[in-house]
Design goal:
Layout: E1 3-5, E2 9-10, H1 12-23, E3 29-34, E4 42-43, E5 46-52, E6 55-60, E7 65-69, E8 84-88, E9 94-98, E10 103-108, E11 116-124, E12 136-139, E13 146-151, E14 159-165, E15 169-176, E16 186-189, E17 196-201, E18 209-214
Bound molecules: copper (II) ion.
């Protein structure tokens, strides 16, 4: 695979595109039922396909419970993720937790020993400007030096991935002239970027714009 690199370009069109993309960003809601059929369980008690940008929705069914993830009592969550504790009973029937950090989450009900569950955030949802387009994964995110981009690319085109800073300047452009297998991620060397937030955009990603964070 050959990668070519272009110098800085600037485009105010991209700024308006980013604003539009952020307004239409969407993730998936993952539903967890709390205490179904008078059991001391979360159902499902393990979810493996969560993406950053998704929402975990706890919905009460029966009993008096809570959902807690604060790093104590066997619970755990990735560094930088917000802790939570929320009652789940007939007066508190739903609780939404927005997933903003990649990693493994282990939560529990503090009232009932053994009533616990996990979910794993393994990728980042694309910010979709076209709701019908499929999701793109970027990992790791946050990243240190290199970031992988995978998803349903339009392979009828040469793949160009642009890296854009928060004021809309295109600061890098990667061109992939030989197509990889659809399951092989594109690996971008971003070691020389400063820490902060950037976006990846590409015509070949159905105009999705993906937020990435450099550590
Ligand atoms: Cu409980």
């Amino acid at each position: 695979m050959r990668v070519t690199y272009h110098s800085v370009l600037k485009s105010s069109i991209i700024v308006s595109m980013l604003l539009f993309a952020s307004l239409t960003s969407k993730g998936t809601v993952h539903n967890i039922t709390v205490g179904p059929s008078n059991t001391m369980t979360f159902s499902p008690n393990a979810i493996s396909n969560v993406l950053v940008g998704d929402t975990i929705r706890f919905t009460w069914a029966t009993g008096t419970h809570n959902t807690t993830c604060d790093g104590t009592g066997g619970t755990s969550l990735p560094g930088g993720a917000a802790t939570w504790t929320h009652p789940m009973n007939s007066s508190n029937t739903t609780f939404d937790y927005p997933v903003t950090v990649l990693g493994h989450y282990a939560y529990r009900c503090t009232f009932h020993s053994g009533m616990n569950g996990t979910f794993d955030a393994t990728g980042t949802v694309g910010m979709l400007s076209d709701p019908s387009s499929s999701a793109v994964n970027v990992f790791p995110n946050p990243f240190t030096d290199r970031v992988n981009v995978s998803g349903s690319f339009d392979f009828s085109k040469r793949i160009t991935l642009n890296v854009i800073n928060i004021i809309g300047e295109k600061i890098k452009c990667f061109e992939f002239n030989e197509f990889q297998g659809i399951n092989s991620p594109f690996n971008l060397d971003l070691a020389d970027l400063k820490s902060g937030m950037y976006f990846i955009s590409s015509d070949a990603l159905n105009n999705q714009t993906i937020r990435i964070i450099k550590k």
